[in-house]
Amino acid sequence: MLFQVFRAYARALHFAVIDVIYREILVRVLTMSLILLTYFGVIDFEQFMWLFVGQYGLTAIGMAAYLLAKKELHLGWKSGFLTPELKKDIIHYSGFTILSGVGSVILINIDVLMIQQMVGLDQVAFYAVAFYIVAVINIPRNAIGNIAVPIISDAWKRNDMAEIQSLYEKTAINQLLIGVLLFIGIWANHETLFHILPEEYADGKWVLFFVGIARLIDVGFGINGGIMTNSPYYRFDTYAGFALIFVTIVANLIFIPPYGISGAAIATGISLFFMNFSRFIVLKWKYNLNPFSYRTLLVLILALASYGISTFVPQLENVWLDLIVRSAVICAVFIPLTIALKLSVDGNKFLQEIVQKVRK
Predict the structure, then answer these.
(1) Looking at the structure, do residues 124 and 264 belong to the same domain, yes or no?
(2) Closest by CA position to 109, among listed 248, 251, 219
(3) Are the C-beta atoms of 283 and 224 separated by less than 8 Å?
(4) Are residues 229 and 121 both part of a single domain?
(5) 263 and 125 within one domain
(6) Of 96, 226, 97, 89, nearest to 168 (Cα)?
(7) Hey, CA dihedral for 244, 250, 255, 261, is it positive or negative?
C-alpha cells in the first residue's frame, strides 16, 4: 500500500518514468527471479513468500529515496490546506474510485469463478495459462498510461481539449501498434508455444486467440479510462463498471456451456468491447474526442499482411528456431513498413533521435 501511495504521488509530480521502471520492470524482474530460484531449489516456498512480500518493501523504499533526492517528499501537516469544500470533494471522488476498484476486482475474477463452477477446476489452469500469455499485450498500455494520465489530468485542469485529443489519438495508435505486433507474434507461434507446454494445455488455444483480440480492443481504444476518470463524468466509469459485471455474467452464462473455456474468452472480449465502446460514445458525444484515424485501419491491414506472410514459413523441427525465425519474419515486415508509412509520429521521432545520436 505504501508503494502504491508513493507511485501515485510520483505520477502526480510527472515522475512517470521512475514509476514504470519500478512497477513494470523491477517488480517483474524480481518476481521472475524468485520464481526461478524456487524452481531450481535455491530457496523454498516459505522463503519465496517472505522475499516476494519484501520486494514491495524494497521498491517502496526505493521510490521514497527517489522522491527525497528530488526534494519532493515532505512529511508534516500544513494547517488550513484541507478545507471543508476540498475534503468533501476528496471523499466524493475517492468513494467513486474505490467502488470502481471493487468492480474491477470482481471483473478480473468472475470468469475464473464461473469456469470453476460450470466446467471444472482443472479447466481453470488451462484458461489461466493462455490468459496470462496474452497479458503481455497490456504491458505497453500500462507503461503508456502511467506517463499519459498525469498529463491528461493537467490538461483537464487547463481545459485544454486539443492536448487531450492529441494524447487520446497518440496513445491509441501507439498502443495498437505495439499490441498488434505482440498479438500476431503470439498467434503465429501458438503451435510452438503449446508444443512446449504439456499436451493438455492445447485446450487453451482459442482462449489465447479470443482473449488476445479482447486485449487488442482494449489497447486500440486508447487511454479512454484515464480521460474519463479525470473528467467531470468520472462517475460514469463506476456505473459502467457495475453494468459490465452484469454483462460479463450473462455473456459467460451464454457462451461457457457450449464452448467451455473458449466461451469465457469470448465473454471477456464482449465485456471489454462494451466498456471501451461506452467510454468512446460518452467522450465523443460530450467532448467530440476520437482516438481513431486512417492510421488505425492501416495498422490492422499491416498486421494481417505480416501475419499472412509468416504463414508461408515452413514448420521447422527445432521449436525454438521456428519461434525465432517466424517472429523475425513478422518483425521484418511489420516494423519497416510502420516506419515507412509514418504510422506513429512519436515512434518515428524517437527513431530519428537515435539515428542522430549514433551519427554523432
Answers:
(1) yes
(2) 248
(3) yes
(4) yes
(5) yes
(6) 226
(7) positive
Q: Is 105 part of any domain?
A: yes
Same domain, 269 and 156: yes
Phi, psi of 318 (to 5 degrees): -80, 115
The answer to whether the pTM exceeds 0.70 is yes
What is the domain range of residue 214? 93-292
Residues 61 and 207 in one domain: no
- State the total domains in the chain: 2
Q: How wide is the angle at C-alpha 150 spanned by C-alphas 11 and 291, nearest 5°? A: 135
CA proximity to 325, closest of 336, 311, 339, 338? 311
If asked whether residues 110 and 168 sit together in one domain, one would say yes
Instruction: Determine whether 160 is exposed, middle or buried from the number of CB atoms within 10 Å of its CB (0-12, 13-18, 19+).
Output: middle
322: its cell numbers: 521456428
pLDDT tens column, 291-315 = 999 999 999 999 999 999 999 999 8
Taking only the tens place, the pLDDT of each residue in 164-174 is: 999 999 999 99
- Helical H runs in 119-160? 121-134, 138-158
Please state, in angstroms and as integers, the Cα–Cα distance from residue 279 to each residue in 69, 155, 224, 268, following that order.
Answer: 39, 18, 6, 17
